[in-house]
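Hi C.,

You asked whether I'd gotten around to modeling the 542-residue construct. I have! Everything is below, sequence then structure, no commentary in between.
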Amino acid sequence: MVQNTLKKIDQFYTGANRWWLPALCGLLYSLALPPFNSFWHPLFTLFPLLSFFALVPLLFFVTRKPLRRALFHTAIYLFFMSLGQYYWIGFVTAEGLWVLVLIGTFLICIAVGLFYFVAALSFRILRTTLPRGCLYIFPAVWVLVDYSRTLSDISFPWALIGYSSAGFLPLAQLSSITGVWGLTFIIVMGNALVYDLLVAVKNGSAQVSQNKVRAGILAAFVVVVSVWGILRISGTDLSSADTARVTKLQSYMDQFNWNRSSLDTAFTVTDSMLSVVEPQRPDLIILPESALLCYLDRVPDHRRTVQSWAARASVPIIIGALHWDYPPEDSPHKYHVYNSAFLIRPDSTDLKPYHKKMLVPFSEAMPFEAQFPILSRVNLGSAGFRRGAGETVFAVNKKIRVSPNICYEIIYPEFVQKRLDSSINLLVNVTNDGWFGRSSGPYQHAAMAQIRSVENGISLARSANSGISMSVDPLGRVLSRTGLYERVILTQDIPLIRLSTFYSRHGDWFVTLSMVMVIFGGVVVVRRRVSRGWRTQKKPPK
């Protein structure tokens, strides 16, 4: 029965140029990733497991004949796969640039699709040239493609397939060893195994039993890892750990309707929320990115106001704002502007800044401007921020040492891991996800931040202007969180213990392993193709 069903599906697909089928399958890929998990609603608890099947249609399309049609339908699938993940970029409106933003969204989906087109094409080649090694090398190729998205000025490592495991926390514990890359590897391997099994069943191949065994072994491995994850979570005692009472203010300022009076409103709203917080006597108060959209340390009245807040509450405050400095004399710019977070301590008159290093391409900075200064004259609506330099640790008080991360920075595994020295015991993420609207964007961003906690065994305090603000313990458990588009105060006792993890000590070692596997596979493929060509030339003419 299964065989007949698979044959009918194959006949239906090959019977006409049904280009809409890869488009539909590409969109359905999104069901495996946030927000489709228990974070959104309990009904979606098992949806993250769909990630083990989400790429099967892609493997089906890329291995069809003729080649031209296979490549065309693969490109369609990958474009709509990307669109299902990044459609929310079109919500980011800029005055007079709405059409440009939509064109940019379209181009981003094409660009991301091209990354994975390389991985898909490698699967087609490996299936014919190195069928046994394909099962291991293809997932390694996918990992390298994911990692390549963290590199260069136009990096965009958003919503990688490994993040589906954020909705299934026992499995996500694997990231404490391999980072998100190991999760990606086993998920992509699972898709390849399911594809092999379905093809064998459809063709009535003798390899059905062998493929069932392979799929069973991986399923057993996933179960074992999940059981280990459950034991790791239940067996780690955080009750005796030192804690900090941390308050996140989700002040929710509507940036879509920002005007001259909005800054006054932001100060008024923040002041009133802090008045509510003061009796709770927290150890730290965190406000979101751009909570006060002004040059906080350059305007004396604003500076005195925030200092008075910290003094009045006798609590240190971390707050997002802007900053400017004078550039070197040979710079073509009059000012260097930074997207910053400031630590305001009640016992100090200094505002300690952290300037964002990883800037959003085109939105916050023009890519490759440092290499090609003429690009600084191109205005696509970007804010023209400068990248911060040097490492910054917020020594909040005697027991809290914070690694600050602004918005986009939290999605870079290696960036976060390298900045966490042994003295840091709290990861802070301030962000403004209001640009995303009520879309998948805020949920995706929150899931990526959650995985950073698991990878590095450190608690996370996240304050988002419009949500999702949350507290996460070193095992990735969400202790408390907010919804979207609500003004709310979130106070939570957060463990300050650091769990030693293999990933926090060794970083992206799994990426290096994947690279070795791909190089080895590439050498074998080239040798076999050369050998086949040599044997063909040696055959005597008939």
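If it helps when you're writing up: The mean pLDDT is 90.

Thanks,
B.
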